[in-house]
Amino acid sequence: MAVTLKEVAERAGVSRSAVSRTFTDGASVSDKMRRKVEKAAKDLGYSPNALASSLTTGRTKLIGLVSNNFHNPIFLEVFDLFTRGLQDRGLRPLLVNLTDETDPENSVRMLRQYSVDGVVVASSTLPPEFAKAFRDAGVPVVHSFGRASSAPQVHVVGIDNVECGRMAARELVRRGYTHVGFMGGPEGASSTQDRYSGFMTEMSAHPDIKASHSFADAYSFDAGRREMLRLLKNGPAQAYFCGDDVLSIGALSAIDDSGLSCPDNIGIIGLNDMEMAQWENIDLTTIHQPIRQIVTSSIELMVAMLDDPERYPETRIFPCSIVERGTLKPGI
Amino acid sequence: MAVTLKEVAERAGVSRSAVSRTFTDGASVSDKMRRKVEKAAKDLGYSPNALASSLTTGRTKLIGLVSNNFHNPIFLEVFDLFTRGLQDRGLRPLLVNLTDETDPENSVRMLRQYSVDGVVVASSTLPPEFAKAFRDAGVPVVHSFGRASSAPQVHVVGIDNVECGRMAARELVRRGYTHVGFMGGPEGASSTQDRYSGFMTEMSAHPDIKASHSFADAYSFDAGRREMLRLLKNGPAQAYFCGDDVLSIGALSAIDDSGLSCPDNIGIIGLNDMEMAQWENIDLTTIHQPIRQIVTSSIELMVAMLDDPERYPETRIFPCSIVERGTLKPGI
DNA sequence: ACGCATTTTGCAACCGGTTGCAAAATTGCA
DNA sequence: TGCAATTTTGCAACCGGTTGCAAAATGCGT
């Protein structure tokens, strides 16, 4: 089927090692030899079999790109950045969709069968057991958008979700709201828990302000819509910190449908600063999450791990900042 | 590093072939043998190296999932469906991002190096040369969301874009608009061209109705917004067929910003029927594209090709239908 | 032209599996 | 129990590459 190294060697009248060496950089080949081989290779349309070579080198240049979030448009950008970033470094993303997968062992087995050189877990909702399971299998792991920890077991790149919760709370206080709400994503996700905990910690310093909370089923527009419709029915707070922009935008749509308006009747602050957040008709006040930096840094970290798999686990946290737009009342 | 077949064989006290056979279905192994081997394998935590076996079997179970559209949220769903569908059949998607890639040869080389068993091109904007190049390299190819053709060179699964253009035009005529517009996606994309051509063909039967056209830079919210803002400045038509829902929603946002309203001042009909289209505050009249069926059918076709690579190229077209919501005036 | 150091080349073993073939073990039946 | 038919097993070669090692070739100084 495909042209093999052996055929190239025969046509060039040289040994197989010679051919192998011309395609391995750092190997010693004379110019004459190189020219001969390259000629033969071109004539035959040869390109080396990366998988076969991985057998002896132990490197496949395959990186497992593992996620379970296929409903938040922000992840389309995340995939875009990851795939391009990895490709630029000669690495190939093997996409693994863990939606509905509950047993880390399955995915570990799968990734091991394909002997990936490393795994990037790109998800804020996947339980940390998955990243741990990969690490335990001896595969370099970077958990992007994962939970910050003072004693990290795997490399984590992301934001300080607790601090984001705080920031949002402080902002709502500053704006003079006296009844605020936290509308989180899926309750089990660490990102939700951390944002919640930061939010509530800050609010506990303001006993005069009423703080309520609830959780949407998923980080998706629809979940946000549904949850806000429910809240509106049961007497909503004056302003909400939504655990993600998709939730916020879903919530805005619910507010709109109910004949209410934002920020006049209800304030909203989101998190992510996705593209849509800046549309004039949405104009969402939100906390900016530096997606691009997180992805870039994750890839750099992964590349570093490939060189030194024993590298000591680190946590890289990027600062977030509030982007003021039009979904909160001006404040005092 | 990883446990190998040889180690399992030694521990179980059997030959390497025996171990190989227990992990290959269809091979003949006695129950006693199988038990011995499985015990040893479990003790050692062995899982076979799929890449090594691919050397002799010639199958990697790797499928190249090639796309260049990482801005249209509909594609997040497409990726979700593809990855899950492929995984369910024991196939692994190798994601290839062709944004900014112009030379098919590069991607061909890359996919060949990883000896993928097949390639799914999931894009409505990628030039057909890419799919052809893969086919010429001897790799089974399915082009999903590709251009229908009466003499297909590769397998194509998608919709009849010309007919969609027609449908949209007919609908606008039926509603009594006397000046209509086509607002397409990127001008070079075959999907855009076909939708345009269908639209204009139909309109040419109505010389009394004025028909104009223009193109957005990309299939993205922002491009739709920008294009509609431009149109609004230069005296817009009464209603537009937008080449995709993201364009439509971007356009709606532009209309909203300009203090106009839809459908009172301007009508919009989209294409895709993405999740957001049904939100009450968007309520987009649109042409439904059966994404799920297209993906499912593409995967089935790919699986069939793996069995019979010489299979004669076919084109699978799924019907679309108009979903009436609230962005067109009621009509006569 | 010679001897020595350095570079280039080929041999052969190996990576982790699969598989055709023949030998060994098991089965069925008289 | 004996023997042929059938099943199970192991040997060894192979898939498409890489690499340590020693032999061959080259370069250099005199």
Descriptive account of the structure:
The structure is a homodimer of 332-residue chains. With 332 residues, chain A is an alpha/beta fold. The first copy, chain A, folds into three domains: 44 residues, 434 Repressor (Amino-terminal Domain), CATH 1.10.260.40; 128 residues, Rossmann fold (3-Layer(aba) Sandwich); 129 residues, 3-Layer(aba) Sandwich (Rossmann fold), CATH 3.40.50. Helix content of chain A is 43%, strand content 17%. In chain A, strands 2-1-3-4-5-11 form a six-stranded parallel sheet, sandwiched between helices. In chain A, α1 crosses α3 and α5 runs parallel beside α12. Chain A is elongated, with a radius of gyration of 25 Å. Chain A starts with a helix and ends in a 9-residue tail after the last strand. The model of chain A has no long low-confidence stretch (mean pLDDT 93). Chain B binds a DNA duplex (30 and 30 nucleotides) through α2 and α4.
Key terms:
homodimer, 332 residues, 434 Repressor (Amino-terminal Domain), Rossmann fold, 3 domains, 6-stranded mixed beta sheet, 12 helices, DNA-binding
